[in-house]
Every structure is written in C-alpha cells, then in structure tokens.
Amino acid sequence: MIKITRKKIIGLILFSPLFAMAQTPAIDLSLDKAVELALAENPTIRVADKEIEIKKVADKEAWQSLLPSVTADLALSHSIKVAAIKTAMGEFKMGMDGSTTATGGITMTLPLFAPAVYQNMKLTKEDIKLAQEKARASRLDLVNQVTKAYYSALLAKDSKEVIEKSYKLASDNFNVVNNKFINGRVSEYDKISAEVQMRTMKSSVVSAETGLNLALLQLKVLMGIDTNIDININDSLKAYEEMLVLSNTQATDAELANNSVLKQLDQNKTMLQRARKILRTGFMPTIAMQLTGQYNSYSNDNWNIFGYKYSPSSTLALAVSIPIFKASNWTKLQSNRIQLAQLQDTRDNTERQLSMAARSYRDNMVKTISKIESDREAVKQADKAVSISAKRYDVGRGTILELNQSETALVQAELAYHQSIYDFLQNKADLDYTLGREWK
To answer: What is the pLDDT of residues 347-360, one digit of tens each?
Structure first.
C-alpha cells in the first residue's frame, strides 16, 4: 500500500499544472480546420463584427430623431430696475423694481416633416451594408492569408522530408563507401566525396527544419492561437495533385462583381448619392409641432419660491422653417458631384487592375499544370538514374561523382515538383481572393 504524505500532496498540487502543460496534446491540423480556427480566433474578425454593431446603433439613433423630444425649463430672474414705456399719456413701468419672477415649463417638440432625417435613416442602412462588406473583406483576406500560409507549411514539410530522405541515402552511401575504403577497394577521394555529400545534406536538413518552424509559427499567428501549442499537419502537397488537373481555371470578368474592393466602391457610390439627397433637403422646408406648458409668477418681493402665486399657461405652435438662401448648400452639392466622378474613375482603374491580376493568375495556373507533368516525369527519371548510378558504382563501372550528381539531381527534381504544386495552389488562392469567392 502506497502511503500518501502531506509533502506528496503539496507536491502534486504545485507541479500538476506543469505536468498538464507537458502532456498537452498537439493539434492535428488540416486546411479546413486552420481556416475555421482563424475565423473563430483572429481578433481582426471580431473587430470587424463590432464595427457592424456600432453601425446598427447609429441606425437606431437616426430613426429616433423622429420621436418627440421633451425638455423642462426652470428660470428665476430678479429685476433690479424694470424698463418703462413713455407715451404722450404718461409713463408706464413694465413691472416692479426689486421684484422676482419665477418661470417653469415643459416643452414637447414633434417633427412632422423632416426630409433630412428620412434621408439620414436610409444613409445609415447603407452604412451598415458597407460595414458588412468590410467584414466580409476581412474574412476573405484572412482566409487567403491562412490558406497561403498553410500551403507554405506544406511546402516546408515536404521539402524537409525530401531532404531527410536524401540525407539518409547519402548516409547509407557513405557507410558503403567507407567500408570499401577500409577494405582497400576504393580510394580515399571516394570516401571524402561521399562524406562531403552526407554532411552537405545534413546542413540542408537543419535549414529545412528551421524553415518549417518559421512556416508553422506564421500559421499559428494567423490562426490566433498560442505559439507554444504544437500542431501536426498530416497532409502533403502531392495530395492536391488530382485537384490541380481537375480545377476549373476559367473565369469571366463578370465574376469580378463579387470582388470586395469593387463592392465597397459601389457601396461608397450609393452612400455619396444618398448624401447628395441629404444635401438637397437643405432647400426643403421642415415642419414641427410644439406643445408648451408653463407656470409663471411675477412681481414677487422675496426669494421664497414656494410661497409664490403661480398661474398656468399653455401654447400649441406649428413651426414651418423655409430655407430661402444659403450659399454653402450649392458648393456642397458641387463637391459631392466631383466626389462621385472621382469615385467612378477609381472604380474603373481598380476593375482594370483586378481583371489583369485575375488573368495573370489563371495563366500561371495553366502553365504550372503543364510544368507539373514535366516535373513528375523528371522525378521518375532522376530516381531511376540514382538506382543505375548506384549499381554502376557497386560493380566498379561508375564513379562517386556520378553517384553524387544523381542524388543531387533527384533532390532538385523532387523539390521542383513540390514547388510547382505550391505555385499552382498559391495562384489559385489569390485568384479566389480576387474573384471574391467565399470559403466553403
């Protein structure tokens, strides 16, 4: 029976968090999971969502301008010397010197016709749409960055595996050559050449590991997770080869309508047009109804407001405000017209650049597909060349130089093959972003 002491219990309490951290399982990551984590954890997305909430609050403020407003006014004034009206019949004072007047009232104002408010309500709704499109743009941009970072991690992972395999092959060849050198079957030059090849590949393995760690770190940052968390990627670029051949690389310029930049420019144009209508309301009348109730007490000779005698009064007024002339209204309209023309020029130029970029991505994808077929065949031939050179060297008909060159050619062919797949996927990710394709 194990005896549990007080020291053991305290030790378990103190060191259990460390044990839990040490035993934290790594995350098995796929492209879909990486995007889902990024959309859920990245703070940029949360900021964009909060911006939409702010715009919705502003929309409420806009229509609340049509609700009645109620104000209360309290006034206490002391007349030191009141004015007098002098006529041919005599002089009449308008009150009593040294008296106090108390006034209290409540006023309710209800707008009956306020065209600027109506247009402003529509403007805030357009502003909400713009905020939603900006949030969509943030999501598209994040998906694009995470997707490309994931492919970069795959390239680093596959490159590391290729170099590790080549290092193992170089190490095995060195062991064979070293045994032959010990037995006096090969020269020291062959042994040195094999050792140099092995050590060179060892240095490449270290560089590949560093590149993979940096790629994974960038992916973690984009996903918004702790950089201390380990992630496992059980995926490879070769798994996407079938998709490359079947992928639809054709796209029409009409698909640019889903581009977020163009949609934001269109939304800004709509808001400028709405702002123009608001400016035009400066030439229109406004109508408001005002109901006022008051209590007044005049000519009091003390400051005891609770002892005053008050008399009630009430008024109902209908106020019509008609603008006659305001020069700035015309200049604001002119400025708005220039802004609309400027925005249209910006949109035309942006659409032209995006169309060119989309066409470039599609052309690169088509060229890469044909390059992948060549690279795949190059890997097969390079692998065959390694086998032949190894057999030739084993029977004494080949040189160590041929063997090293064949191994180097195989590494280069495999790296070029993975690089081609990576280039295709990068161009496809950029094309999807340019065309505004949503993540599915």
So the answer is: 999 999 999 999 99
Tokens at 81, concatenated? 């010397």
The answer to whether the CB of 151 falls within 8 A of the CB of 418 is no
Inter-residue contact 156 to 212 (CB < 8 Å): yes
d(CA 437, CA 434): 8
Q: Which two tokens stand for residue 435?
A: 């065309």
Q: Are strands 69-79 and 99-113 parallel, antiparallel or unpaired?
A: antiparallel
Asked if 220 contacts 403 with a C-beta cutoff of 8 angstroms, the reply is no
Question: 73-100: string of b/e by CB count within 10 Å (b at 16+)?
Answer: eeeeeebeeeeeeeeeeeeeeeeeeebb
Q: How far apart are CA 119 and CA 115, in angstroms?
A: 6
Distance CA 209, CA 167 (A): 13
* pTM of the full structure: 0.78
* Mean pLDDT estimate for the chain: 86
CB 124, CB 57: distance < 8 Å? no
